[in-house]
Amino acid sequence: MAFQFQVPQFIEIEDKIFGPLTIKQFIYLAGGAGITIILLTFLPKFLALLIALPFIALSVALSFYKPNSRPFVVQLESMLHYFLGKKLYIWKKVEKKKTEEEVMPKEWQPPQLHVPALSGGRLKDMTWNLDVKKQEENDKTSGI
Q1: 21: nearest Cα among 59, 54, 53
Q2: What own/partner pairs with CB < 8 Å and gap ≥ 24 does 24-32 have?
Q3: Which domain holds residue 52?
Q4: Is 36 part of a structural domain of the chain?
Q5: 131 is a domain residue
Q6: How far apart are CA 31 and CA 60, in angstroms?
Q7: Per residue in 42-81, pLDDT tens?
Q8: Total domains in the fold of the chain
């Protein structure tokens, strides 16, 4: 007996509850409108609109603005963590003071190379081996 279940699709898309708005969008816009109404009732109109304008812009950005296909809330949260959190610097370059000898050496000397010394007997053996190999190569090419 096999059971068939429906697998939910579109799980990353939020449900539209208030017309074309999701619940989060509605709460952000309602919060911005509520702050604006409170400011308009207690302050003069010009001053209230001047103070309410950043709240309106923030509520609209939180509702609809998606930089890099991510909600603005995520970017705002990351920005607050950066500004309020501790900053750890891993590497700072420290200049070393150079001594006089490092800046300008007294005398330049070429590097010393170690050349192994060959004894007379060993040198003769090496030349004989080279001559023999050369003779063998010549014999092979001439067909002897």
Answers
A1: 59
A2: 24/63, 25/63, 25/64, 28/59, 28/62, 28/63, 29/59, 29/60, 29/63, 31/59, 32/56, 32/58, 32/59, 32/60
A3: 16-84
A4: yes
A5: no
A6: 10
A7: 999 999 999 999 999 999 999 999 998 888 999 999 999 9
A8: 1
